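Bit of a strange request maybe. I'm writing a small parser for structure token strings and I need a real example to test against, not something I typed by hand. Could someone generate the tokens for this chain?
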Amino acid sequence: MRCLALAKHLMIYEDLTDLCKQGLAERKLYNMDSFFKAVDKIKPVYDVTYKVMLFICKVLLVADILITSMSVLGRYVPFIPDPSWSEEVVLTLMSYMAVLSAALAIRRGAHIRMTALDRYLPKTLVKILDLLNDVFVLGLALVMIIVGWKYATTIGSKGTYVSLPKVSRFWMYFPIPIAGVAMLVFELEAVYNHIKGFFVKEGDK
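Reply from user aminoacidic:
Good idea to test on real output. This should exercise your parser:
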């Protein structure tokens, strides 16, 4: 009889332990879910940032096309001016457009990457590799901000455009730190999405 009573007590204890463990796990999941929902409220800010940067890229592209067209036509049409500063300005605007559009591609996941082996690897491993990839790009963004700003404020500030003597070459080097900031913004979102993917199922996102 004592053995039976002891066995019953052990079974009750094991059930209570399992319930406690299950309750802790559910509470942990609930806390993570609440955290992700709170952070997801920032997503509209990223959406607006993306749209603003896309609009800036479009304006830069239109400006490039107009200045280039004016420069080319100015060589053959007498009444159309062919300013000496057109080449340097076009190259500078193109630099800004290139680095900003590259940052936009980070958010869309549009950069070229090797995915041929992804189908043969475990999904968890693929997620870890994607996370590591974004962490390394995040590090590159920080280097571009620090080193790019250093070059822009030292080498860049000491010279001027050949065709525009009053304009500092700072603006020619400035796209590098600008690109770093833009990459940092969207890489933080990408890293967050990868971490979220470990805790939230695809259908629940």
